[in-house]
Specification:
A hairpin with a 5-residue loop joins strand 7 and strand 8. The protein is of the alpha+beta class and about 260 residues long. The protein has two domains: about 140 residues, no CATH class; about 80 residues, no CATH class. About 35% of the residues lie in helices and about 20% in strands.
């Protein structure tokens, strides 16, 4: 609430197919990313393509979809930012540092080697993550420290060395997802995700005037959301019958 206090709430998640809500769930997870796998396990085992916004991007989610033979059309969280001039000129970003694939080392702005070692961790859900930690051999006296090393942490920038934490699996998955979402199919699916999913939430909030849950407890709140979703689907079916759009799966953009 921007004043140090919390408001009682749930994270509501819906899945939409052909403009109909095919799954609805409430979660106590604050992060969207941690709700994707439980939601897919309940509702979306039969779908070959999963389209989400950037809030659902994580190595764990990418790996889950790969293991289940589902294509991820997930917008990378840095997609919009990476197109800016500021992003492309930031010397501290890994993407802007020269990389030697044979030696598996990066080079900083002044040409120092940023060598590596591996670190193994697990996510809160138990997913194993292998991170390659790249650390500069020497940053002493470097005039570019203020631009290369981001502030933060207990040590002042002057006493720190350049360090990168890189998951090679995640970089591969993100690159593949980027190619998919920028393809003709990916552009069409992302456009329809915005229209159909955000549109469903918009209709429930604005047209149906549903601004807050009336019950308490996760089971009761989820039941409310499911009833609301069924009402939405009845209205959607009526609208599609009246407008002659039955059988239409995706919105196709009109040519200029």
């Amino acid at each position: 609430m921007r004043n140090g206090q919390l408001k009682p709430a749930y994270n509501a998640v819906i899945g939409v197919d052909a403009e109909y809500i095919v799954g609805a769930m409430v979660s106590q997870e604050r992060s969207d990313g941690k709700t994707l796998i439980p939601f897919l396990n309940r509702y979306c085992q039969g779908y070959s393509r999963i389209t989400t916004d950037a809030g659902y991007e994580s190595e764990e989610n990418y790996s889950y979809l790969e293991e289940n033979g589902q294509l991820a059309f997930i917008k990378p969280s840095n997609y919009e930012q990476s197109k800016t001039k500021k992003y492309k000129s930031d010397i501290g970003r890994r993407e802007n540092m020269p990389y030697d694939s044979e030696a598996d080392v990066y080079y900083c702005h002044v040409g120092h080697r940023v060598a590596n070692h591996e670190k193994r961790t697990k996510s809160t859900a138990g997913y194993p993550i292998v991170t390659t930690v790249y650390e500069c051999e020497s940053c002493e006296g470097c005039p570019h420290k203020a631009k290369c090393i981001k502030p933060g942490g207990k040590q002042p920038v002057e006493e720190r060395t350049k360090r990168l934490n890189v998951s090679k699996t995640f970089l591969r998955q993100r690159a593949e997802a980027h190619l998919r979402i920028t393809s003709d199919e990916g552009i069409l699916l992302r456009m329809n995700r915005s229209i159909q999913v955000e549109g469903a939430f918009g209709v429930m909030k604005e047209d149906m005037d549903f601004r807050q849950f009336l019950l308490r407890g996760q089971v009761k709140v989820e039941t409310e959301l499911l009833i609301l979703s069924m009402a939405y689907n009845v209205n959607k079916l009526h609208n599609k019958i009246q407008s002659g759009r039955c059988g239409m799966y995706l919105h196709i953009p009109k040519a200029a």
